[in-house]
Design goal:
This protein has about 375 residues and is of the alpha/beta class. It has 2 domains: about 130 residues, Lyase, Ornithine Decarboxylase, Chain A, domain 1 (Beta Barrel), CATH 2.40.37.10; about 210 residues, Alpha-Beta Barrel (TIM Barrel). It contains 12 helices and 18 strands. Strands 1, 11, 12, 13, 14, 15, 16, 17 and 18 form a 9-stranded mixed beta sheet that branches. Strands 2-10-9-8-7-6-5-4-3 form a 9-stranded parallel beta sheet. It starts with a helix and ends with a helix. The protein binds pyridoxal-5'-phosphate (PLP). Pyridoxal-5'-phosphate binds next to helix 9.
Length: about 375
Amino acid sequence: MKPSVYRQLPSPTYVMDEELLIRNLERLNDVRERAEVKIILAFKAFAMWPVFDRLAPYLDGATASSLNEARLCYEEMNALTHAYSPGYIPSEFEQIVKYSSHITFNSLSQFEKYKGTVQNALHPVSMGLRINPEYAEIGVDLYNPTAKGSRLGVEKELLKNGLPEGVEGLHFHALCENNSYVLEKVLTNVEEYFGHLLPHLKWINLGGGHLITHKHYDVEHLIGLLKGFKEKYDLEIILEPGAAIAYQTGYLVSTVLDIVENHGVKTAIIDASFTCHMPDTLEMPYRPGIIGATDPVEGRPTYRIGGVSCLAGDCLSEYSFQEELRIGDRLIFLDMMQYTMVKTTTFNGIGLPSIAMLEKDGYVRIFKNFGYEDFKSRLG
Ligand SMILES: Cc1ncc(COP(=O)(O)O)c(C=O)c1O
Protein backbone atom coordinates (compact mmCIF):
# COMPACT_ATOMS: atom_id res chain seq x y z
CA MET A 1 0.00 0.00 0.00
CA LYS A 2 1.43 3.34 -1.05
CA PRO A 3 1.85 6.31 1.34
CA SER A 4 -0.49 8.31 -0.90
CA VAL A 5 -3.20 5.80 -0.01
CA TYR A 6 -2.69 5.38 3.71
CA ARG A 7 -2.15 9.08 4.41
CA GLN A 8 -5.70 9.86 3.30
CA LEU A 9 -7.32 7.24 5.56
CA PRO A 10 -8.89 7.82 8.96
CA SER A 11 -6.71 6.41 11.73
CA PRO A 12 -6.86 3.69 12.86
CA THR A 13 -8.30 1.69 9.93
CA TYR A 14 -8.25 -1.94 8.88
CA VAL A 15 -7.64 -1.98 5.13
CA MET A 16 -8.31 -5.04 3.01
CA ASP A 17 -6.32 -5.14 -0.25
CA GLU A 18 -8.68 -6.58 -2.87
CA GLU A 19 -5.89 -7.70 -5.19
CA LEU A 20 -4.21 -9.71 -2.44
CA LEU A 21 -7.54 -11.25 -1.40
CA ILE A 22 -8.27 -12.38 -4.95
CA ARG A 23 -4.78 -13.87 -5.21
CA ASN A 24 -5.48 -16.04 -2.13
CA LEU A 25 -8.90 -17.01 -3.40
CA GLU A 26 -7.50 -18.12 -6.75
CA ARG A 27 -5.02 -20.39 -5.01
CA LEU A 28 -7.74 -21.90 -2.83
CA ASN A 29 -10.02 -22.34 -5.81
CA ASP A 30 -7.27 -24.21 -7.63
CA VAL A 31 -7.15 -26.75 -4.76
CA ARG A 32 -10.93 -26.87 -4.61
CA GLU A 33 -11.26 -27.65 -8.32
CA ARG A 34 -8.35 -30.01 -8.79
CA ALA A 35 -8.89 -32.02 -5.60
CA GLU A 36 -12.69 -31.86 -5.98
CA VAL A 37 -13.25 -30.78 -2.40
CA LYS A 38 -15.41 -28.10 -0.81
CA ILE A 39 -13.70 -25.11 0.79
CA ILE A 40 -15.74 -22.96 3.15
CA LEU A 41 -14.69 -19.86 5.08
CA ALA A 42 -14.46 -20.07 8.87
CA PHE A 43 -16.16 -16.84 9.93
CA LYS A 44 -14.48 -17.00 13.33
CA ALA A 45 -11.27 -15.86 11.61
CA PHE A 46 -12.64 -13.40 9.10
CA ALA A 47 -16.19 -12.18 8.62
CA MET A 48 -15.82 -8.84 6.84
CA TRP A 49 -19.15 -9.17 5.12
CA PRO A 50 -18.90 -6.22 2.69
CA VAL A 51 -16.38 -8.30 0.71
CA PHE A 52 -18.44 -11.51 0.63
CA ASP A 53 -19.48 -10.86 -2.98
CA ARG A 54 -15.77 -11.14 -3.92
CA LEU A 55 -15.55 -14.55 -2.19
CA ALA A 56 -18.61 -16.14 -3.76
CA PRO A 57 -17.06 -17.38 -7.05
CA TYR A 58 -14.21 -19.12 -5.24
CA LEU A 59 -15.73 -20.70 -2.12
CA ASP A 60 -18.59 -23.03 -1.17
CA GLY A 61 -20.02 -20.93 1.65
CA ALA A 62 -19.02 -20.67 5.27
CA THR A 63 -18.88 -22.35 8.63
CA ALA A 64 -20.56 -20.68 11.58
CA SER A 65 -19.88 -21.08 15.30
CA SER A 66 -23.02 -19.33 16.53
CA LEU A 67 -26.47 -18.17 15.54
CA ASN A 68 -25.11 -14.75 14.64
CA GLU A 69 -22.56 -16.20 12.22
CA ALA A 70 -25.13 -18.61 10.76
CA ARG A 71 -27.50 -15.73 10.09
CA LEU A 72 -24.71 -13.66 8.56
CA CYS A 73 -24.01 -16.51 6.14
CA TYR A 74 -27.66 -16.74 5.22
CA GLU A 75 -28.22 -13.01 4.81
CA GLU A 76 -24.91 -11.86 3.34
CA MET A 77 -23.62 -14.95 1.51
CA ASN A 78 -27.02 -16.21 0.45
CA ALA A 79 -26.01 -19.67 1.58
CA LEU A 80 -26.83 -22.25 4.21
CA THR A 81 -24.00 -22.70 6.65
CA HIS A 82 -22.05 -25.58 8.16
CA ALA A 83 -22.59 -25.06 11.88
CA TYR A 84 -20.39 -26.28 14.70
CA SER A 85 -20.31 -25.19 18.31
CA PRO A 86 -18.92 -26.81 21.47
CA GLY A 87 -22.44 -26.36 22.91
CA TYR A 88 -25.61 -25.15 21.19
CA ILE A 89 -27.80 -22.75 23.15
CA PRO A 90 -31.31 -24.27 23.47
CA SER A 91 -33.19 -21.05 22.72
CA GLU A 92 -31.17 -20.56 19.50
CA PHE A 93 -30.97 -24.05 18.12
CA GLU A 94 -34.11 -24.07 15.96
CA GLN A 95 -32.95 -20.91 14.21
CA ILE A 96 -29.48 -22.35 13.66
CA VAL A 97 -31.11 -25.33 11.95
CA LYS A 98 -33.03 -22.93 9.71
CA TYR A 99 -29.78 -21.39 8.48
CA SER A 100 -27.75 -24.64 8.16
CA SER A 101 -27.09 -27.38 5.62
CA HIS A 102 -24.74 -29.26 7.99
CA ILE A 103 -24.68 -29.35 11.78
CA THR A 104 -21.78 -30.85 13.68
CA PHE A 105 -22.11 -31.78 17.35
CA ASN A 106 -19.25 -31.69 19.79
CA SER A 107 -20.51 -34.58 21.91
CA LEU A 108 -22.85 -37.56 21.81
CA SER A 109 -25.08 -35.90 24.39
CA GLN A 110 -25.54 -32.79 22.21
CA PHE A 111 -26.36 -35.08 19.28
CA GLU A 112 -28.97 -36.96 21.32
CA LYS A 113 -30.49 -33.73 22.63
CA TYR A 114 -30.89 -32.05 19.26
CA LYS A 115 -31.16 -34.80 16.61
CA GLY A 116 -34.98 -34.73 16.69
CA THR A 117 -35.08 -31.00 15.97
CA VAL A 118 -32.74 -31.50 13.01
CA GLN A 119 -34.72 -34.45 11.66
CA ASN A 120 -37.92 -32.36 11.79
CA ALA A 121 -36.38 -29.44 9.88
CA LEU A 122 -38.19 -28.11 6.81
CA HIS A 123 -35.12 -28.79 4.64
CA PRO A 124 -32.58 -31.64 4.78
CA VAL A 125 -29.74 -30.96 7.23
CA SER A 126 -26.85 -33.39 7.48
CA MET A 127 -25.57 -34.21 10.96
CA GLY A 128 -21.95 -34.81 11.97
CA LEU A 129 -19.83 -35.41 15.04
CA ARG A 130 -16.57 -33.71 15.91
CA ILE A 131 -13.83 -36.17 16.81
CA ASN A 132 -10.52 -35.70 18.57
CA PRO A 133 -7.74 -37.26 16.45
CA GLU A 134 -5.23 -36.81 19.31
CA TYR A 135 -2.47 -35.50 17.08
CA ALA A 136 -1.37 -31.91 16.50
CA GLU A 137 1.80 -29.92 15.92
CA ILE A 138 0.86 -26.69 17.67
CA GLY A 139 3.41 -24.99 19.91
CA VAL A 140 0.94 -23.05 22.05
CA ASP A 141 -1.48 -24.96 24.35
CA LEU A 142 -4.08 -22.20 23.98
CA TYR A 143 -4.53 -23.25 20.34
CA ASN A 144 -4.28 -27.02 20.68
CA PRO A 145 -7.69 -28.73 20.60
CA THR A 146 -6.36 -32.31 20.48
CA ALA A 147 -4.75 -32.70 23.91
CA LYS A 148 -5.94 -35.55 26.12
CA GLY A 149 -8.75 -34.18 28.26
CA SER A 150 -9.68 -31.59 25.61
CA ARG A 151 -13.31 -30.49 25.67
CA LEU A 152 -13.36 -30.38 21.86
CA GLY A 153 -14.50 -33.49 20.03
CA VAL A 154 -15.57 -37.02 20.88
CA GLU A 155 -12.78 -39.35 21.99
CA LYS A 156 -12.07 -42.57 20.10
CA GLU A 157 -13.21 -44.90 22.92
CA LEU A 158 -16.77 -43.58 22.69
CA LEU A 159 -17.08 -44.46 19.01
CA LYS A 160 -15.36 -47.84 18.97
CA ASN A 161 -18.68 -49.64 18.39
CA GLY A 162 -19.75 -47.42 15.51
CA LEU A 163 -21.70 -44.24 14.87
CA PRO A 164 -25.15 -43.46 16.24
CA GLU A 165 -27.87 -43.68 13.63
CA GLY A 166 -28.38 -40.42 11.79
CA VAL A 167 -24.72 -39.29 11.81
CA GLU A 168 -23.52 -38.80 8.24
CA GLY A 169 -20.26 -36.95 8.74
CA LEU A 170 -17.19 -36.50 10.92
CA HIS A 171 -15.37 -33.29 11.65
CA PHE A 172 -12.00 -32.62 13.18
CA HIS A 173 -9.96 -29.48 13.71
CA ALA A 174 -6.37 -30.19 14.66
CA LEU A 175 -4.22 -27.76 12.67
CA CYS A 176 -3.02 -24.23 13.30
CA GLU A 177 -1.13 -22.54 10.47
CA ASN A 178 0.18 -25.98 9.46
CA ASN A 179 1.19 -27.53 6.15
CA SER A 180 -0.15 -30.61 4.37
CA TYR A 181 2.52 -32.88 5.87
CA VAL A 182 1.05 -32.27 9.33
CA LEU A 183 -2.42 -32.89 7.90
CA GLU A 184 -1.13 -36.20 6.57
CA LYS A 185 -0.06 -37.25 10.08
CA VAL A 186 -3.43 -36.19 11.53
CA LEU A 187 -5.19 -38.25 8.84
CA THR A 188 -3.05 -41.25 9.77
CA ASN A 189 -4.38 -40.95 13.33
CA VAL A 190 -7.93 -40.48 12.09
CA GLU A 191 -7.62 -43.69 10.10
CA GLU A 192 -6.09 -45.55 13.03
CA TYR A 193 -8.65 -44.42 15.63
CA PHE A 194 -11.77 -43.85 13.54
CA GLY A 195 -11.02 -45.85 10.35
CA HIS A 196 -13.89 -48.29 10.97
CA LEU A 197 -16.34 -45.36 10.69
CA LEU A 198 -15.01 -43.85 7.47
CA PRO A 199 -16.69 -46.24 4.98
CA HIS A 200 -20.09 -45.29 6.47
CA LEU A 201 -19.75 -41.52 6.02
CA LYS A 202 -21.09 -39.12 3.43
CA TRP A 203 -18.60 -36.41 4.33
CA ILE A 204 -15.60 -35.53 6.43
CA ASN A 205 -14.69 -32.00 7.42
CA LEU A 206 -10.94 -31.52 7.92
CA GLY A 207 -11.39 -28.28 9.89
CA GLY A 208 -9.19 -25.21 9.53
CA GLY A 209 -5.55 -24.38 10.09
CA HIS A 210 -4.43 -25.27 6.54
CA LEU A 211 -2.21 -22.32 5.58
CA ILE A 212 -2.62 -23.08 1.88
CA THR A 213 -1.91 -19.49 0.81
CA HIS A 214 1.54 -19.43 2.42
CA LYS A 215 4.20 -19.21 -0.27
CA HIS A 216 5.94 -22.42 0.89
CA TYR A 217 2.75 -24.50 1.18
CA ASP A 218 3.06 -27.64 -0.98
CA VAL A 219 -0.25 -27.45 -2.83
CA GLU A 220 0.54 -30.47 -5.05
CA HIS A 221 1.10 -32.63 -1.99
CA LEU A 222 -2.19 -31.46 -0.48
CA ILE A 223 -4.11 -32.20 -3.67
CA GLY A 224 -2.60 -35.70 -3.86
CA LEU A 225 -3.47 -36.35 -0.22
CA LEU A 226 -7.05 -35.16 -0.56
CA LYS A 227 -7.68 -37.08 -3.77
CA GLY A 228 -6.23 -40.26 -2.26
CA PHE A 229 -8.41 -40.00 0.84
CA LYS A 230 -11.51 -39.18 -1.16
CA GLU A 231 -11.04 -42.13 -3.50
CA LYS A 232 -10.23 -44.56 -0.70
CA TYR A 233 -13.38 -43.82 1.28
CA ASP A 234 -15.67 -42.40 -1.41
CA LEU A 235 -16.79 -39.41 0.63
CA GLU A 236 -17.05 -35.67 0.25
CA ILE A 237 -14.17 -33.70 1.75
CA ILE A 238 -14.71 -30.27 3.26
CA LEU A 239 -11.97 -27.87 4.38
CA GLU A 240 -12.87 -24.86 6.50
CA PRO A 241 -9.86 -22.55 6.67
CA GLY A 242 -10.22 -19.05 8.03
CA ALA A 243 -6.75 -17.59 8.32
CA ALA A 244 -5.64 -18.90 4.90
CA ILE A 245 -8.32 -16.86 3.14
CA ALA A 246 -7.35 -13.56 4.73
CA TYR A 247 -3.63 -14.32 5.22
CA GLN A 248 -1.40 -11.40 4.15
CA THR A 249 -4.30 -9.51 2.57
CA GLY A 250 -4.44 -6.31 4.56
CA TYR A 251 -3.22 -3.80 7.05
CA LEU A 252 -3.97 -1.86 10.17
CA VAL A 253 -3.14 1.80 9.64
CA SER A 254 -2.29 3.66 12.85
CA THR A 255 -0.74 6.96 13.89
CA VAL A 256 2.02 7.83 16.40
CA LEU A 257 0.52 9.92 19.23
CA ASP A 258 3.56 10.34 21.44
CA ILE A 259 7.09 9.13 22.06
CA VAL A 260 8.01 8.41 25.67
CA GLU A 261 11.33 7.38 27.15
CA ASN A 262 12.04 5.38 30.32
CA HIS A 263 15.50 4.12 31.35
CA GLY A 264 16.68 4.64 27.81
CA VAL A 265 13.78 2.65 26.26
CA LYS A 266 11.82 4.67 23.75
CA THR A 267 8.18 3.76 23.11
CA ALA A 268 6.10 5.11 20.27
CA ILE A 269 2.50 5.25 21.49
CA ILE A 270 -0.04 4.75 18.73
CA ASP A 271 -3.78 5.41 18.43
CA ALA A 272 -4.54 1.66 18.20
CA SER A 273 -4.22 -1.07 20.79
CA PHE A 274 -2.71 -4.55 20.59
CA THR A 275 -5.09 -5.94 23.18
CA CYS A 276 -8.19 -4.34 21.62
CA HIS A 277 -7.43 -4.51 17.90
CA MET A 278 -4.61 -7.05 17.31
CA PRO A 279 -5.03 -9.58 20.14
CA ASP A 280 -3.02 -12.36 18.48
CA THR A 281 0.09 -10.20 18.82
CA LEU A 282 -0.17 -10.73 22.58
CA GLU A 283 -1.90 -14.13 22.73
CA MET A 284 -0.03 -16.28 20.22
CA PRO A 285 2.23 -14.26 20.44
CA TYR A 286 2.58 -13.11 16.85
CA ARG A 287 5.02 -10.38 15.83
CA PRO A 288 3.56 -8.43 12.93
CA GLY A 289 5.58 -6.73 10.23
CA ILE A 290 5.45 -2.93 10.10
CA ILE A 291 6.06 -1.15 6.80
CA GLY A 292 9.54 0.44 6.88
CA ALA A 293 10.58 -1.29 10.13
CA THR A 294 12.87 -4.21 10.93
CA ASP A 295 13.86 -6.19 14.00
CA PRO A 296 16.17 -4.08 16.18
CA VAL A 297 19.43 -3.01 14.50
CA GLU A 298 22.11 -1.34 16.56
CA GLY A 299 22.69 2.26 15.65
CA ARG A 300 19.26 2.72 14.05
CA PRO A 301 16.33 4.59 15.64
CA THR A 302 14.65 1.90 17.72
CA TYR A 303 11.28 1.92 19.52
CA ARG A 304 8.91 -0.29 21.37
CA ILE A 305 5.41 0.18 20.00
CA GLY A 306 2.86 1.00 22.68
CA GLY A 307 -0.90 0.59 22.44
CA VAL A 308 -3.28 3.25 23.68
CA SER A 309 -4.91 1.18 26.47
CA CYS A 310 -3.95 1.16 30.15
CA LEU A 311 -2.78 -2.47 30.05
CA ALA A 312 0.92 -2.45 30.93
CA GLY A 313 1.63 -5.19 28.41
CA ASP A 314 -0.23 -3.51 25.55
CA CYS A 315 2.98 -3.15 23.55
CA LEU A 316 5.37 -4.90 21.17
CA SER A 317 9.10 -5.27 21.74
CA GLU A 318 11.46 -3.09 19.77
CA TYR A 319 11.53 -2.39 16.05
CA SER A 320 14.13 -0.28 14.19
CA PHE A 321 13.33 2.37 11.62
CA GLN A 322 15.39 4.21 8.99
CA GLU A 323 14.64 7.57 10.61
CA GLU A 324 13.51 8.85 14.00
CA LEU A 325 9.76 8.50 14.41
CA ARG A 326 7.76 11.70 14.83
CA ILE A 327 4.37 12.39 16.30
CA GLY A 328 1.82 12.10 13.50
CA ASP A 329 3.76 9.45 11.55
CA ARG A 330 1.71 6.58 10.24
CA LEU A 331 2.59 3.04 11.32
CA ILE A 332 1.18 0.36 9.05
CA PHE A 333 0.94 -3.16 10.51
CA LEU A 334 0.95 -6.03 8.01
CA ASP A 335 -1.25 -9.13 7.87
CA MET A 336 -4.05 -7.69 9.98
CA MET A 337 -7.17 -9.24 8.48
CA GLN A 338 -7.58 -12.58 10.30
CA TYR A 339 -8.54 -12.80 13.97
CA THR A 340 -8.54 -9.00 14.29
CA MET A 341 -11.88 -7.40 13.29
CA VAL A 342 -13.75 -10.43 14.66
CA LYS A 343 -12.07 -10.12 18.07
CA THR A 344 -12.01 -6.40 18.77
CA THR A 345 -13.09 -4.95 22.12
CA THR A 346 -13.82 -1.43 23.30
CA PHE A 347 -11.75 -1.86 26.49
CA ASN A 348 -11.01 1.57 27.99
CA GLY A 349 -13.69 2.95 25.67
CA ILE A 350 -11.13 2.95 22.88
CA GLY A 351 -12.80 3.38 19.50
CA LEU A 352 -12.87 0.56 16.98
CA PRO A 353 -10.76 1.01 13.83
CA SER A 354 -12.62 1.95 10.67
CA ILE A 355 -13.00 -0.78 8.04
CA ALA A 356 -11.98 -0.15 4.42
CA MET A 357 -10.94 -1.81 1.21
CA LEU A 358 -8.26 -0.80 -1.27
CA GLU A 359 -9.94 -1.79 -4.52
CA LYS A 360 -8.14 -3.18 -7.55
CA ASP A 361 -8.39 0.16 -9.38
CA GLY A 362 -6.72 1.99 -6.46
CA TYR A 363 -9.92 3.47 -5.04
CA VAL A 364 -10.28 3.21 -1.25
CA ARG A 365 -13.80 2.41 -0.10
CA ILE A 366 -14.58 3.02 3.56
CA PHE A 367 -17.23 0.57 4.74
CA LYS A 368 -17.57 1.64 8.34
CA ASN A 369 -16.55 4.26 10.88
CA PHE A 370 -17.39 3.57 14.53
CA GLY A 371 -18.49 6.02 17.18
CA TYR A 372 -19.79 6.49 20.70
CA GLU A 373 -22.99 4.49 20.08
CA ASP A 374 -20.98 1.38 19.15
CA PHE A 375 -19.21 1.59 22.51
CA LYS A 376 -22.30 2.45 24.52
CA SER A 377 -24.63 -0.09 22.94
CA ARG A 378 -22.45 -2.96 24.18
CA LEU A 379 -22.82 -1.90 27.79
CA GLY A 380 -26.50 -1.52 28.42
C1 LIG B 1 -13.55 -25.77 14.29
C2 LIG B 1 -12.67 -24.77 13.59
N1 LIG B 1 -12.73 -24.68 12.25
C3 LIG B 1 -11.97 -23.79 11.57
C4 LIG B 1 -11.11 -22.92 12.23
C5 LIG B 1 -10.32 -21.93 11.42
O1 LIG B 1 -8.94 -22.12 11.59
P1 LIG B 1 -7.90 -21.23 10.80
O2 LIG B 1 -8.36 -19.84 10.88
O3 LIG B 1 -6.61 -21.47 11.51
O4 LIG B 1 -7.87 -21.76 9.40
C6 LIG B 1 -11.02 -22.98 13.63
C7 LIG B 1 -10.14 -22.08 14.36
O5 LIG B 1 -10.03 -22.07 15.56
C8 LIG B 1 -11.83 -23.92 14.34
O6 LIG B 1 -11.80 -23.99 15.67
